Task: structure prediction
Amino acid sequence: MIAPTTAARRWLPDLLTAAGLALAPFVLPALGVPPDTANRVVVWGLFGIGFDLLFGYTGLLSFGQSAFFGTGGFTAAYLLINGYLSNVLLGLVVGTIVAAIVGGLVGLIALRRTGIYFAMITVAIGQVFFFLENSPLAALTGGENGLPGVPSPDFNLGFVHWRVQTGWSMYGFLAICFFAGMVLARRIVASPVGAVLIAIRDNPARTQALGHSVWSYKLTAFVIAAAYAGLAGGLLGVLQGFMPPDAFTFDTSGQLVMQTVIGGAGTLFGPLAGAAVWLFLQDALQGALGLGAAWKLVLGIIFVLLVCFLRRGLIGGLRDLADLQRRRFPVTAATRGSSAPPSAAPATPALRRRAGAAAYSGPVLEARNLTKRYGGLVANRDISFSVAEGELRGVIGPNGAGKSTFFKMLTCEVAPTSGRILFHGHDITGKNIATVCQLGLTKSYQVNQLFGRLTVRQNITVAALAERRGAFRLDLLRRLDSVAGLAAQVDETLSLVNLGSRAEVPVSDLAYGEKRRLEIGLALASSPSLLLLDEPLAGMSPRERAETIQLLKAIRRGRTLVVVEHDMDAMFELAERITVLNEGTLLAEGTPAEIQRNAFVQDAYLGGMAAE
Amino acid sequence: MLSWPNFLSQCFNGLALGALLALISSGLTIIYGTLGVLNLAHGAMFMLGGYIGYEAYAATQSYAVAVLAGALAMVVVGVVVERVIIRFFYARPPEDQILVTFGLGIVIVELVRLAFGSQSVQIPPPAWASGVTIIGFLIYPTYRIVVLGIAAVALVALYLVLYRTRLGMVVRAGIEDSGMVDLLGINVDRVFMLVFGIGAMAAGFAGIVNAPVVALTPDVGDTILVETFVVVVIGGVGSFPGAVLGGFIAGEILSLTSMIDPSYSQVMLFAVMTLVLILRPQGLFGLEGRE
Amino acid sequence: MNDVKTGRGVATRRAVLGSAAGLIGSAVLPGGWIRDAAAAETYPALGTFPEGSSGDSVFIGIAVPRTGTYAVPGEDELKGYQLAIEHLNAGDDLIRKISPSTTKGVLGKTVKFGVADNEAKPNTAVQAQSRFISQNKAVMITGSVSSAVAVALNKLADREKVIYLPCISGSNDTTGKDCARYSFRECFYAYTAANAISPVLIKNIGRDKKVAYLTPDYTYGHTVHQSMEEFLKPGGWTTVTNQVCPLGASDYSAFLLNIANSGADVFVNINFGNDAVQSIKQAQQFGILSRQILAVPYITPFLAREVGPDVMQGVYAATDFWWTLQDKFPLAKMFVEAFDKKYGYKPEWGANAAYLQVAFWAEAVERAKTFYPPEVIKAYEAAPTLQSTVGEVAFRASDHQLVRPVVIIRGKKKADMKGTDDYYDVLEVVPGKDLMPKPDVLGCKLGSYT
Result:
């Protein structure tokens, strides 16, 4: 997805899609597939593309897509039937837009929560729309009878006149719509926005911490999915010449989810495949096998089995199989396990030069009287702290000294109970973590927070994108590799953390030390002017430790760093100044030599160590 | 229909409806709170409890046996489902858990349809609780009053289990912080299995107790599930007191709005949910930061 | 039976069709006029004609709900179809009494059929029937338990030029504003039901009564409610409350409390399907049925069996058919006996409607002497008097609605029941002629034949 491809390879899937869609009317009749079934599969497939962007790519499982399917469908049908619009295409476009707007409004509510809350809220919202269609708006929507008489499109281009009729002629129209939807979706997936959406699916918290406005991107995905649903709903009306009220039922949303999972979420083509399987089995189980009412049971069982054993669905399963084949070739194996000691920093990556920052000459970061209480428990009490430009500051302290809470407050992950935080002289207290990252302050985590299903390069790309594009940008159609300076920045970061040779390896295949370096690389890639490292040496073997210390020495050039570490030897070797925390308060601060001599520190620290 | 007697009758009815919703929702919320799994098959389990009770009733003609059989069988069903399917999903993303329980719900409904057909089956209320009770102006089915009583007792029992036993302590600890349970050195595996069993029992028990009120069909759990979601979202996912309060709130909304415009009673429920989401996204008793 | 000559003629036509249509599957031959052997007339290709009737069998697409809340009447309906088709292919006496032109099969062709679950959803129904049309070349499609499905298939029928016969469909719209040239309805509906039951209620219960309504919140429910109010007005009846409830509610207590506290004399319950079963059962628990008289203007099949005779005793209802009509109509007796023998229970009105629809269709095709749809429609529209299980009936050409009696029944006491299925007394069989609205009242505008 993020890896660069040649122009030919870039367009190949689109060409294949077009060819497949064009061949279908010649192949399917021979297989006994009637045009109506093919048409429905295409409509479900289009509906599913949007849902796949939402669920398969962004990780948001909605059970309320029927709301937008119905909204788009009924809007288009109403306008066309009552003569407000005569052009079918225009009706479909208006329906799509209305669905997208409604999707935006619903998203504002539903996206207040994530995970299961989100799923439950979408179920409830779907029900509300069904009710609205059926009762208060029955005069407009025809209530339980729906809206009959939706016209078919009619294209008069002067030299050719295409009047779309039922059967394969309708298929032609629907297939063109599907193709357009697929090309657009593929562009979106390949765009910087697509890269961020995938990152959100894998690790929303880290995406936010890297400076992306996760909420805005989620809303974007939600609106896009609603637009696709709206278009598909409109097409359903056109296909049948009738807009059915059951478009709004929970079953519609449920069937969409099941088809997408059966076909494979996160593949774009999955919903199409899932719909084909679903409609085929629905017919075959009732017709050829004569199962009667039990058809739904069989489909239910198939669905459960797929979720249990083939979660990536049919298309996903095929892709995995293909990947497995590819991996058998020892091409990548040669590059594996090569963890040569880091070369002395090849180049100093471009430092962030922000307007206003240059004129400022005070401390980079200043914390004033930070206090954090959890209920009755005081985690941090009245800590004041300041870091100068270019400094490498160590923060040490025994377990339970409040280092983690302190760090979380500095990056605005946790708001202090009282006190202020100033970054380049600006008050950032209570700001969003993404905003703070955009200002140039970020951290690497004690426990790796990586994008586990992506490659090393994709990981770094996500981080670099935040710096290149800001917190939120709607460049849906721009190609990822056309983002100016992105590739260079990613490559620089990769070589800085010495993962250049491992760029195309999935994170899940990395060794622990490599993952730690990637963790630091993520923070580095956003070109922070102040980098906070939370126990970068935690859990490392002696060799990995030595490598990482080298790495820290390399990256400190031209940067301001604050490092929390248990490993005091490393701190004494690296840091210019050290701050010691104990029992939530600031105990001492000074050069390594001063700290080593400090009696209080020896006492408290060793005492604390002994108590562990 | 605005009159004092009717208003008071509807208040009481809201209480009766609410108690049942509270009972079903508490099952859903306990399972989620402890296991982190949203059980979309909860409505199907509510229905299944009713059908198992019906079978027991058909065999013995005894209400008590039916209720007992329905509840106990659902513990077994819950444990089996947990062992065979759910436990493999603890480590998987929440979306997978939702998907698998969603599918499971469909399978259960269609299995019951296969076994019993679509025609409704009936369990009469026990002889001692049939007919209506007249309290002043309030005329109310005796059995529904009994349901209110049973649901209240069951909620108290659940409360005692959760707040006065070791298992309950573990469950609540798990709701507060899933890591803590491990630290306590407890056999998490067994606790999870039991909790799923108890959650399924709460649904199944409500299903059989409610069975004489409704005509049982395989689809009877569908509407309940959505209402349960609303209750849980209002009360705060994972919170037992939230489920109880949310249940009663939902019951009163359904009842009282019917006096003004009955067709809007369901929508009012969703409106209140939306309001809660805007003003207090974590729900009335929800824990901040827990998703 | 098919004679050999016809069979051979068919084969050659098929070959021609096959090669011409091969490129794009089921495409209709443009302007191709085909000679119909049976009718010795020439007709253009239209809908599934002539492909659907070119072999020695014809295909009927049946889609009924088999899952969901309408599955019970759906299965009953299906049995009615199966019995009718079996009778048709065997040339049974019963079907030949209803369709006197029938000998065996239809125009000498065996009738085959396919069944699909329409889940009571318009979308699924259209999907299933579209497949029967395009893949099986169905010459007729049929089946419905809800008007939403009937209306959707009406539109499909007009569009695909294939005759559709709704079965259970109570909405005025099915032969009203959503009527279709290609669709014919057998059963009673909101307007005739309200019109038939109201005078009986006034006659039996008295004048100047107070009524409480429980109305399902969709167009059909509101229509019946309005019709009932209109027809009860002459008796001085007034509405004290109209409780509008959502479709598919599982608990009716809030609505029923309002009705219990409304001081009504009569409780009119308009719910259908499982909603009717649920709400009536719960009304009984609230003691409403012992203080108010229940009237059901449009009865759900198997209602009495599901809620039991204790609940149904004294309940007034309008229906399409009740099996004890066999004492009155000989054809009803034949039908009930044949059905009971095959399936082991007394048919409900959905099965009766299904049977009659197939029989009437066979008669229309025989009279038209061709499967060419416009000719079949014209044979229907000629409106011959037809014999049926409810006496003499006839279709109305202007809106394709069968003019047929509405049967008013009242629930028996358990002690008075003779046998398990004997739930009702037939109070009146109200002749259909006087019940029907004037043709243009419901806004029917039939579409074109071709």
